[in-house]
Specification:
The protein is an all-alpha fold. It folds into two domains: 90 residues, Fumarate Reductase Iron-sulfur Protein, Chain B, domain 2, CATH 1.10.1060.10; 74 residues, no CATH class. It is 57% helix and 0% strand. The protein is built from eleven helices and no strands. The protein is elongated and about 55 Å long. Bound molecules: iron/sulfur cluster (2 copies). The site of one iron/sulfur cluster (SF4) has 15 residues, from α2 and α3. One iron/sulfur cluster binds next to α6 and α7.
């Protein structure tokens, strides 16, 4: 039997023993986002075991995942499915197969904002996202309205321990979580 490189890639990068899945469906049964997925959690795990790299990495499911970890908690084999979905997002972007790359781009800016300020600076993050996509005026009226109603701030408000928060984010990103 040829070696399943995709399974090795996922197990190696996550440290999760995906191959121990016996398709009991418990993960999918407890998943609040399953209805928004084109490939539900237990099926995604099954396809990884089957070596279906392209099918899994081009799926929209990792982008629908809420990272609530209900699946990981429910799994009788201790398989951290939420961790696998995070890895699938990263791999799908890296391989150019991501179904929703814009979600990844926004996530990256949001984490960068939290690393800088210790909390998210909403207006700055959305403006950077829109500028990067060339959508200079998209939803600007809504943005102005939200600032006027004080739903979001015009300027960033730095958290007291932003250095500590930045250090946590740096360690987390370095560990690929
Ligand atoms: S709950 Fe665990 S063992 Fe059951 S299908 Fe999901 S990943 Fe596989
Ligand atoms: S972590 Fe993602 S896949 Fe798991 S139950 Fe939550 S939404 Fe579903």
């Amino acid at each position: 039997m040829p070696e399943n490189l995709f399974l090795t890639e996922i197990e190696g990068s996550t440290g999760v023993a995906v191959s121990e899945c016996y398709q009991c469906f418990r993960c999918t049964n407890g998943c609040p986002a399953a209805r928004d997925m084109d490939i539900v959690p237990h099926r995604t795990i099954g396809l990884i075991i089957a070596g279906e790299r392209e099918r899994v990495l081009s799926s929209a499911s990792p982008w629908a995942c809420l990272q609530c970890a209900a699946c990981s908690i429910r799994c009788p084999n201790g398989i951290d499915i939420a961790r696998v979905f995070t890895a699938l997002r990263q791999l799908s972007v890296g391989s150019g197969m991501a179904a929703h790359r814009e979600v990844h781009d926004f996530d990256t800016l949001m984490i960068d904002s939290i690393a800088r300020h210790g909390r998210m600076y909403e207006l700055g993050t959305v403006m950077r996202y829109r500028l990067a996509r060339g959508e200079y005026l998209r939803q600007y009226r809504m943005g102005i309205g939200m600032v006027k109603k004080r739903r979001i701030g015009l300027f960033p408000h730095n958290a007291a321990d932003r250095k500590g928060i930045r250090s946590i984010i740096t360690k987390t990103v370095k560990n690929g979580r």
